[in-house]
Amino acid sequence: MGLQPCNYCGKPFTGRGKRYCSLACFYAHRRAGRKCALCRNCGREYRPRHGARQPKFCSPACFEAHRRANPRQYWTCLRLRVQCESCGREFEKKQSQCRVSSHHFCSRACANRAHSRAVRENPQGYRAGRAAAVCQGCGKTFHVARCRAATARYCSKACLFIHRFASKGGGDDPGRPGSNNLHTARDNARKQLGEKCLLCGFDLFVETHHIVARRDGGANRIENLSILCPNHHKMAHLGLIAPAELKRLTLAAIARRSGRLPLFEPPLNDGV
């Protein structure tokens, strides 16, 4: 194996594939090839460590001192000082948010006021990219984004709440929000109509029947319920008892229990 010169000191040495005669020559040559940099904190010239892409400080102590002296430069999200377009107040905003939108508002209230003012000044331009819908509460026409045209039903929360609760009855209405329709309808029917079959007077076991079925649009209101024994309940579902007759007996029972009609006992026969 022949001799070859060291890349740093030029001393001949033996070794296949090696460029330096020792580790001291290797580290000395690496240090000599580094460019000097200026520390951002103390301004001293230093040689950055090997592999450093953007050298800034000569030591960890200088880095900590610079970070304590300039905390705003080390925030995770750089913030900019901007002015609110609605109220004129200055506030800080993330730089990424400034790139998304060129409008600056300090709060949601200021943004809503500016939006309302722009709509009043140019209503046609505001409605150009929006779809018209009719409010189910007040009947007025309002405009929404095209993606919500098929689902928007109310122009405001006030119309939503008024329309939602205006059609509901009192505490005995099984259709009220939060109530169990099956059990509430059954309990209300027995309270208002009694626990006897309206046709035969059987009272050992009774069932609640919808005169107009729910699948046909019938409601859980007391006017659409009747108390029947199992036999007459089955007959009513088979169409052997006319719905008009059940409706008449239900209204009579409601009036009788409210004191508007004299007490009436149904016949003991089927009455069909």
General description of the model:
By secondary structure, the chain is α+β, with helices and mostly antiparallel strands. It folds into 4 domains: 33 residues, no CATH class; 45 residues, no CATH class; 38 residues, no CATH class; 77 residues, no CATH class. Helix content is 33%, strand content 14%. It contains 9 helices and 10 strands. The strands form 5 sheets. The chain has a two-stranded antiparallel ribbon with strand order 1-2. The protein is elongated, with a radius of gyration of 43 Å. The C terminus is likely disordered.
Quick description:
The protein has 272 residues and is an alpha+beta fold.
Please outline the helices and strands.
Layout: E1 3-5, E2 12-14, H1 23-32, E3 37-38, E4 45-46, H2 60-69, E5 79-83, E6 90-94, H3 95-100, H4 108-121, H5 123-127, E7 130-134, E8 141-145, H6 157-166, H7 181-193, E9 207-210, E10 225-228, H8 230-237, H9 243-257
Antiparallel strand pairs: 1-2, 3-4, 5-6, 7-8, 9-10
